[in-house]
Structure prediction request, 746 residues.
Amino acid sequence: MYGELASLNQENMMVKIEGNVRIITQMMTLYGSRVDYNITTGAAHIKNARILTSEFNLVANELIRVSEDEYVAKEAEFTTCKDCAESWSIYGKTIRLRVGKYVQINHGLYKIKGVNVIYIPYIVLPILTKRKTGLLVPNISSRSGEGLAFAQPVFWAIDDHKDATITPTFWAKRGYGGDVQYRQRFSEMTWAEFNTRLVDDKIYQPGQDNKGESGETFFRYFGEFESHQFWSPDLNSHVRYTGLRDLDMIRDNPQYTDLKTISSDFGLNGFLNWRQDLFSLNAEADYLRNELFDDSVKFDRSYVQTMPRLSFNTTPYSILQSRTPMFQHIAAGADGSFSRFRQVRDDENVFLRNADRLSVQPYVMWHLFNWGPVSLKTRYTFDQQAYRFDDPSQPMAGKNAGLMKTEIGFSMDRIFGLAYEEKIPLKYVSEEQLKKLRERREQGLSPIQKTEKKSRLVGELPEFEPAYTKDYLVQNRSSYRHSQDFKFIHHFITSQNEYGNKKFIGDIRTNQAAFFDYEDSLRSQEYLFGASATRTIIPPENTVEFQWNNTLTRKSPKVFNYLDDDKYLRDNFTYTKIGYFNVSQGYLLNEQDAEDFRQKLTRLAILTGYTGGRWSLNLSEYYFHYANENIFNMNLTRRFEYLNVFANYNYNSFDSAKLNTLNFGGQIRPTDTLGLAMVKDIDLEAQKDIRTVYSMDIMPHNNCWIFNLNYRQSLVDNRYSFNILFNFGDDNFDRYRNDYFGVKRL
Prediction:
């Protein structure tokens, strides 16, 4: 306790302090004009009091300290705004404060900018350090043609390890329903979460496109359950289930389901992984429902389920290692899996759909020699699959292929500059140079981040430059390494055989629809399939591939807090890959009789990218010479001081996978108080706008609240939504406001 004048009565142990009184406790700082404090009981009576904490401010004509954690204020104002008491506050005749729990206000007046807005007879506000059962902020939304929707979440803090949120909801024309969420953490890395939405819908009927009430109700639901189990550092498992009654639930509730769907399948996914030093074992299973099905309430019985898949992988085992040329290093290993495919469809199928597949790929890696920058190595893999069908009348089938990949490479590097830390005496550094160096250190951060402070102090302090307190300036310099690899790779199939069931072998030879997955393909034909993942590979039958790979790496001294005696690791650097440019082209040796030279060329692959302080660019282009087709992808992000733009473009010209889509958008913050954002998805092939979202954020200087307004336009509907975020002292609010370009708002 501090003050200008203090007196102590030793008979009743009362302390009186007057004039600029300040009391500092572990949880808060109190100011006042006078305090009467009982040393024995700890009770205190403070006149013209003010309480400052990291969570709230309170100003009172009279403050009584009942106990260490409980205060009673008379004629007081309370607000969670630390730097903006005049932005909003609640005045109360009596305010009872329980530190770290809640504030009870009797006969309150809600005030905005000092203006009385509404009378509140009684209100309880949380100032909790732990979760507390109670009402959360209600949610109001509007959908074109359906009216307003009102949701009131109720939070239930069951105990320190689990909680639940129940949200009864009224959807104007659709009817009643709600959301339920349950979360539980069993240990640091073991948890479970359940989410569901229920709607007793008065509009929707399967197979109909109603705009108004249908005359009867249809009960709809969407549910998600996810759990992760960390049994030990070597053993973990994960389970995820998503289910819904009708597939149109995704269309009618995108704001809820978009965040909970990861593919066009719904159902059960799970895996179990066990890792050891020499091998790893995995088990996974799926039982899924296909969203791309014409009947919204029925199950696609033609969908092939994987129940289960068991796989193993070994680390390469070193057989021989020496300095003898041609025998420098030989290692061996194996990968494999057992998969059980089942289809619940009862009618006769065109293809065999119920089968067990055993796949094994042992391999040998042989590093022959290194001669200066030149190296030679080869790898042989024996890829084999065996099939057993559920139909006893169908004989077994199998196929195998010997794959050899021989590579001769030439590598060279060039290093620019030297990475080191330099101490420059301040007498050699001008004020202008010091300012430039500070700007360079802060490169990549917006001016908003420079000026706004995350400190919980009241008011602002001027910027402090630590270099001014020292007699030298520490400057880090980086070096750059440009690496080039020239490789000639020969892909060759030494053998290929198919045997057994003639129907199955004939189907996988002529029709991709007969596959369970890409492992069922004949290796000599794998690159002919329509999927981009297989079409872009080099044909393995007898092909020479040339690769030119470039990598630009930055080496920088680590930021290090030296000990007093300046002892530290000398080789203390960080390495960052900031750019790459790779080219790959193959030549088919088996096509010597081709009339057109382009028939001998495989796809041309050009992959490049750059990542800088404010730039991020990635491009991939696969050009198919003879067919004159392209598979192109581009990702771009560019940061400016007040603007962030991004774009993603995908193009596939093959008729079997026609794709031409563009996703782009940006965020701009022209002033400290206003932020605007937009994102747009366009299908250029169909010439349709898939989705457009506009967002506006109003963030006043008082750092008390943020108003967010969104407009979403899609093929399905148009939707307005708004949200108000209040500053209750949590880190989420600070990040949403101060790191505007780092938070995904759309």
